[in-house]
Specification:
Blueprint: E1 8-9, E2 16-21, H1 26-33, H2 35-43, E3 52-57, E4 60-67, E5 88-91, H3 98-109, E6 124-126, H4 133-153, H5 161-174, E7 178-183, H6 185-190, H7 192-198, E8 206-213, E9 223-234, H8 243-246, H9 254-268, E10 274-284, E11 296-297, E12 305-306, H10 314-326, E13 332-337, H11 341-347, E14 353-356, H12 359-371, E15 377-378, E16 396-397, H13 406-415, E17 424-428, E18 432-433, E19 443-444, H14 449-460
Parallel strand pairs: 1-6, 2-4, 2-5, 5-6, 9-10, 9-13, 12-16, 13-17, 14-15
Antiparallel strand pairs: 3-4, 7-8, 8-10, 11-12, 14-17, 18-19
Amino acid sequence: MQTIELPCAGPDPAALPLHVVRPGGLETLLARLGDAGTFLRQSGFAAKPGELVLLAGAAGVAGAAFGLGDDRSPYPFGDLPFRLPEGVWRLLPGDFAADAAVLGFCLGAYRFRGFKPPRRPPSRLALDLPHAPALAAALAETRAIWLVRDLINTPANLLGPAELADAVLALAQRHGAEPMRVAGAALDDAYPAVAAVGAGSLRPPVVAGFAWRGSGADAASPLVALCGKGVCFDTGGYDIKPPDGMLRMKKDMGGAAIVLGIAQVLMQADLPIRLMVRIGCVENSISGSAMRPSDVIRTRRGLSVEVGNTDAEGRLVLADLLAEASDAAPALLLDCATLTGAARSALGPDLPALFASDDGWAEALLAAGAAVHDPVWRLPLWDGYDPWLDSPIADLNNIAGKPFAGAIVAALFLRRFVAARTPWLHLDLYAWNDATRPGRPDGGEAQALRAVCAAVRGKLLAEPGDRNTPVT
C-alpha cells in the first residue's frame, strides 16, 4: 500500500485564517472581524451548514468563514479540503471540538490515488492547535480509515487473496504482532469451509491473521477477537450474480478491511489488551472445481453444511473463523462482513446492522456509535427463524427455505459456530459510499470502525470484568 500522507502541516505563520462559526456565534464573529465582518453581513452569510465565504485582502484571499449550522459531527469539515483555495489554512478556535474538525477535514481530503492524478491536491490544515491525546487519536483514526478505503477501492485484479493476506501480515509486522498464514493442504484441514469457498478460483484461498499484546497487557488481559470476511471478488459462484450485481464486488472484502482498520487503531493506542485477528482471504469464482448448489461441506466446528446457494459464501468463510476465535474464550468476539443485501434493504447503505449475543456489548456499541457519529442499528437474533436453516441431509443449510429476514437468518447461521457464552457482535455492513458527501467520498468506507474502537475503550478499559485465561 502507498504511504499515507495526511493533509496536515505544522504551525505555519503564513497559513490563512479559517473562521468556523455557528449561527449563535455569528454576531460575535462579525463584530470581531470589523470590515471583513461587514462584508460577510452584506454577503448574506448566515453560518448555515456548509456555507463558505472567502475574505479578500490586499494580496488576494486573506481568509475564509465557514458555517456549521447545528451539526456536531466531524463531517461538515470534510467539505473544506477541495472547496478552500489550495494552500495551508489555520483553523481558529471556535464552538467545535478540534479533534472532530481535524478528523472531518482529513476524511474529506481522501481520494483513491491508484491510477490517475487528482485534479488538484487538497488544501492543508496547519495543526497549531494544542496537541492533545484526542487530536493524536483523530489522526490515528484517519490513517486507519484511509487504509480501509484504499484496500476496498483497489481493483480485484490487484487485490486477490494473496495480496489481502500480505496486507494482514504487513500490518502485523508494523506493530510487532505474531503473524499466522494458513494455505494449501493445511487450510483444508484447519479451515475446510474457507477452502470450499475458494476452490473455484485460480487464486488460492488463505487465512491470515496475527496475535498482539499491548505493552501494558499480560496473559490474563482481556482478549478481543476480530474476524473479517475477505472475499476479494464475488461472482456468486454457480448461483451467479447478474452483471450489475458484480459491479461493486471488489468491495466484498470490506469487512476484512474494516477489521484491519480497527486492529490498527487499537494497536496504535497500545491498549492493555490482547488481540486476535483472523481474515478469510478468498475469491468466490466459477470453475470445474467450484462448490455446487446441494454440495455438503465440512466446517471447523464439525458441523456439516448443505450449500443451498453458492452466493451465500461469506457466512461459510466466517463460520470457520468464528469457531476458532470463540474457542479462545475472548472478552469480545466481533466479526465484520458485507454479508447480505437484506440488511441494506432493511436499513439502507448508511446503517450497519448489528446482531449481538450480549446486551451489554450491544448497548456499548450503540452508545459509542451515537457519541462519535458512526451509527449502527441493532436487529434481533430471532430464535423463531432458526429452524429455517434445517437441512434433511446435513446439520444445517447455508440459506433458509423462506424468502424473508435474510440478514437475521445469516446471523443465526453464524451463531451456530460461536461457542456458548461468548460475547459476540456481528456487523453486516455496506462498506461503501454511493456518492460523495462531506467527509465521505464515493467508494470504500470504514463503517463502524470508530464506533467499535470507542466501545472497546469505554467498556473493556472502564469495566475490568472477568480476567481471561491465556490462549493455548
